[in-house]
Amino acid sequence: MTASQRSRTPESEGMSDPAHVAIIMDGNGRWAKARGLPRVAGHRAGVQALRAAVRAAPDLGIEWLTVYAFSSENWSRPKSEVTDLMGLLKLFIRRDLAELHQNGVRVRVIGDRDGLSSDIRALLEEAEALTCQNRSLNLVIAFNYGGRDEIARAARKIAQAVDAGVIAPEEVTQDAFAEYLDTAGMPDPDLVIRTSGELRLSNFLPWQAAYSEFVFLPCYWPDFSRNELVEAIRTYAGRDRRYGGVPARDVAL
Ligand code: FPP
């Protein structure tokens, strides 16, 4: 059963659902600071908010949930914070994998794995292999991910494929190029949500979000709950997606 075949809850009834929601989970540090806590406490609370979003997503018609957990630029943070974030990813996979699998969640990871330690790479591979047949929700974790880096890596791979005669230069179309991205085979996000009031994309899915709708929320990520997700979907449902065209109702004017 796909998420769109699943019966809807009253709060999502009648909405035009975004099948793919991507989230920039921002504001963990400020959430912690406002409480006089260390930044890691904000990230821990952020993992809780992530769990809640994963549990809520299928009921709201979401089939794909992509989250920005660690960017390729996050290495510039203090070493202790980088260690904390790596530790939280490991803990998340170790503690939550069984529940995710039981709930039919397929885990996928995008980003540059070569830059990660071998124990993290092994955990990510284990999560992907165990859940590869699951269909309730695709949870895509962007880890050591940067959009420009992804595009540069794809360009390198396609140049090698051209060099090897696998593909001709004139066959490098948008669709062919997309097959060399980390997100090959995944739909583009319909809705990108960013918390914490910042109005930036921060190198998150720049290719894939070309026609996405954006919803910026003032709350810090640890305060994000099912209610905020429902609200963002409601805002999305009121948008007019035109993909560079004109609305059908205006065509005859
Ligand atoms: C941005 O907040 C958040 C991050 C850089 C990390 C996001 C990570 C999590 C939600 C938890 C980890 C999740 C997994 C799956 C390991 P910020 O630290 O930039 O906040 P600030 O802008 O208020 O300082």
Task: Give the number of domains.
Answer: 1
**Assembly of the depicted chains:** single chain
Compute the number of strand runs.
Answer: 6
Give the % helix.
25-40%
Structural class, by secondary structure, is alpha/beta
Q: What is the topology, as strand order, of the major beta sheet?
A: 3-4-2-1-5-6
Q: Let me know the CATH homologous superfamily.
A: Decaprenyl diphosphate synthase-like
Extract low-pLDDT stretches. Answer: 1-10
Average pLDDT over all residues: 93
Please identify the top-level CATH class: Alpha Beta
The string of secondary-structure elements, in order, is EHHEHEHEHHEEH
Describe the fold and architecture.
- This protein has a single domain, classed as 3-Layer(aba) Sandwich (Undecaprenyl pyrophosphate synthetase), CATH 3.40.1180.10.
- A six-stranded parallel β-sheet has the order 3-4-2-1-5-6, with helices on both faces.
- It has seven helices and six strands; from the N terminus they run βααβαβαβααββα.
- The protein is α/β, with parallel strands linked by helices.
- The protein is globular and about 55 Å long.
- It starts with 19 loop residues before the first strand and ends in a 16-residue tail after the last helix.
- It has helices at 28-34, 39-56, 79-102, 118-130, 147-163, 174-178, 226-237; strands spanning 20-24, 64-71, 105-110, 137-145, 191-194, 213-216.
- The longest helix is centred in the middle third of the chain and has 24 residues, at 79-102.
- α1 (28-34) crosses α2 (39-56) and α3 runs parallel beside α4 (118-130).
- It binds farnesyl diphosphate (FPP).
